[in-house]
């Protein structure tokens, strides 16, 4: 059995890790931490977990987290994660970090969009945790930076087009809509029920922090530095992200070539489902799962391709992908614990 600890287990992604791992046949969760809930039973804080998690929250320290663990998930806000990860690694555990602190190869990019990086030396060994692109490196890593939710949905949609050079990568536009749980469990006016319910708005237009993360990965695939347009929106639903990605096809590229690119890259993937022709996916069809469902169409009037992807922000966009990465890092089947079907409606 693999022993894992979860730092920040009282947040939404922490809960989602506990939900998934409660059914994982090869994992025992030994330790969960939260500063505000130290000493309280998980089942008292989250009644949904009664009968599934007998643990008591402990304080968030490296010593507590590593006492009985082979791997630690850090489900903490940015900055707090890089404050503790070096200590965790020095105590001999592997780490999957769900924050943005270890997603960037170049600390200058992180510092331009977030804040000073306090553990920049670790970035050269960190692996970006998107299994479809970095499976082998993830399996060898001791520190994985789990991707952001929007980047996961956009990169999976665009990767075959950029990798196969089917589009002009400088024309990529990504337009994404997220459920409110993407903002975490903390209280803020922006996610207050009355501010969100029955409405729909764009936010952080042309300045969202996921932009450089998407650009880092698309640039690596394209072999040139890219800048893309990315607009996130908040929609009044609890879970889910739907991203629509547009790009100009290179002259002469056919629908058959596009089809072959998606099938070649994703045909054997366990958590990537290509929709039948003409069917575009809904966030409802991936809820609570690690699936990314994708559909695309060429618009011959404009020579643009339109790709639509859906994920659950808390599962494929965070904790499900984190568990998949853990499986790879610990030599387990990557789908272990992640195979349940979505719920509907
Ligand atoms: N929600 C989502 O869809 C996604 C989230 N993420 C990222 O995952 C991470 C966790 O997100 P999420 O679960 O939504 O966040 P939440 O706000 O729901 O939970 C954050 C957790 O971290 C703890 N915490 C907060 N501040 C600190 C601190 N300074 N030091 C130590 N612990 C702290 C909190 O507990 P306590 O205060 O009691 O210690 C809580 O358990 C974030 O980095 C987020 O950006 C990534 C992808 C998707
Ligand atoms: C709806 C909503 O607020 N979403 C969050 C998504 C952030 C996230 O989950 O990822 P990081 O770990 O990269 O912060 C946002 O836009 O900031």
UniProtKB/TrEMBL annotation:
GO cellular component annotations, sorted alphabetically? cytoplasm
Please describe what this protein does: Catalyzes the NADPH-dependent reduction of N-acetyl-5-glutamyl phosphate to yield N-acetyl-L-glutamate 5-semialdehyde.
Per UniProt, what is the name of the gene that codes for the protein in this document? argC
Q: Which GO terms describe its molecular function?
A: N-acetyl-gamma-glutamyl-phosphate reductase activity; NAD binding; NADP+ binding
Which catalytic reaction applies to this protein?
A: N-acetyl-L-glutamate 5-semialdehyde + phosphate + NADP(+) = N-acetyl-L-glutamyl 5-phosphate + NADPH + H(+)
Q: What is its EC number?
A: 1.2.1.38
Q: Which domain of life is it from?
A: Bacteria
Catalytic site positions? 149
The record's family statement is: Belongs to the NAGSA dehydrogenase family. Type 1 subfamily.
Q: Which organism is it from?
A: Desulfacinum hydrothermale DSM 13146
Places the protein is found: Cytoplasm
Q: Which keywords does this Swiss-Prot/TrEMBL entry list?
A: Amino-acid biosynthesis, Arginine biosynthesis, Cytoplasm, NADP, Oxidoreductase
Q: Name one GO biological process term.
A: L-arginine biosynthetic process
Pathway as given in its UniProt record: Amino-acid biosynthesis; L-arginine biosynthesis; N(2)-acetyl-L-ornithine from L-glutamate: step 3/4
Which InterPro entries does this chain map to?
AGPR (IPR050085), AGPR_AS (IPR023013), AGPR_dimerisation_dom (IPR058924), AGPR_type-1 (IPR000706), NAD(P)-bd_dom_sf (IPR036291), Semialdehyde_DH_NAD-bd (IPR000534)
PANTHER family attached to this UniProt entry: N-ACETYL-GAMMA-GLUTAMYL-PHOSPHATE REDUCTASE, CHLOROPLASTIC-RELATED, N-ACETYL-GAMMA-GLUTAMYL-PHOSPHATE REDUCTASE, CHLOROPLASTIC-RELATED-RELATED
Q: Does the keyword Amino-acid biosynthesis apply?
A: yes
Instruction: Identify this protein by name.
Output: N-acetyl-gamma-glutamyl-phosphate reductase
């Amino acid at each position: 059995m693999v022993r894992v600890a979860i730092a920040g287990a009282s947040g939404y992604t922490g809960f989602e890790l506990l939900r998934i791992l409660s059914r994982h046949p090869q994992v025992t969760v030994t330790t969960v931490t939260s500063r505000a809930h130290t000493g309280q039973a998980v089942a008292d804080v989250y009644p949904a977990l009664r009968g599934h998690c007998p643990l008591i929250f402990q304080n968030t320290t490296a010593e507590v987290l590593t006492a009985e663990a082979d791997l630690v998930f850090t489900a903490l806000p940015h900055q707090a994660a890089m404050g503790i990860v070096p200590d965790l690694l020095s105590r001999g555990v592997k780490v999957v970090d769900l924050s943005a602190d270890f997603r960037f190869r170049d600390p200058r990019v992180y510092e331009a969009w977030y804040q000073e990086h306090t553990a920049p030396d670790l970035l050269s060994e960190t692996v970006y945790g998107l299994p479809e692109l970095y499976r082998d490196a993830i399996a060898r890593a001791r520190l994985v930076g789990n991707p952001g939710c929007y980047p996961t949905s956009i990169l999976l949609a665009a990767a075959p087009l950029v990798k196969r050079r089917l589009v002009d990568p400088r024309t990529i536009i990504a337009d994404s809509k997220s459920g409110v749980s993407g903002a975490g469990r903390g209280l803020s006016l922006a996610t207050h029920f009355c501010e969100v319910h029955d409405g729909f708005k764009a936010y952080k237009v042309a300045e969202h922090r996921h932009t450089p993360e998407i650009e880092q990965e698309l640039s690596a695939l394209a072999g040139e530095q890219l800048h893309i347009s990315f607009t996130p929106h908040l929609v009044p639903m609890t879970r889910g992200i739907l991203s629509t990605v547009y790009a100009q096809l290179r002259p002469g590229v056919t629908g058959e070539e596009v089809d072959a690119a998606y099938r070649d890259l994703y045909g054997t993937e366990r958590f990537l489902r290509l929709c039948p022709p003409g069917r575009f996916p809904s966030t409802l069809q991936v809820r609570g799962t690690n699936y990314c469902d994708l559909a695309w169409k060429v618009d011959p009037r404009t020579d643009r391709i339109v790709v639509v992807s859906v994920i659950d922000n808390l599962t494929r966009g965070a904790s499900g992908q984190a568990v998949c990465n853990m499986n790879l890092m610990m030599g387990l089947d990557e789908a272990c614990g992640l195979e349940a079907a979505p719920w509907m409606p």
